[in-house]
Design brief:
Number of strands: 0
Low-confidence stretches: none
Mean pLDDT: 89
Number of helices: 2
């Protein structure tokens, strides 16, 4: 079961990096404002992913 936690945490960690990139780079290219909702979702996914990785160790 620990391996499942670790792998799920890694996936959430990767998704948070992608979300953060989209939330920051897209508005810079389009000249808009950075979405705080997308930043919040990225942070939450990162926190859950880090917790699951730690739990799987």
């Amino acid at each position: 079961m620990k391996k499942v936690y670790t792998e799920t945490g890694k996936y959430l960690y990767d998704i948070s990096k992608i979300t953060l990139g989209v939330a920051v780079i897209t508005p810079l290219v389009k000249g808009g404002d950075i979405s705080l909702v997308a930043l919040g979702i990225s942070f939450i996914a990162f926190a859950i992913g880090a917790y699951l990785i730690k739990k799987g160790e």
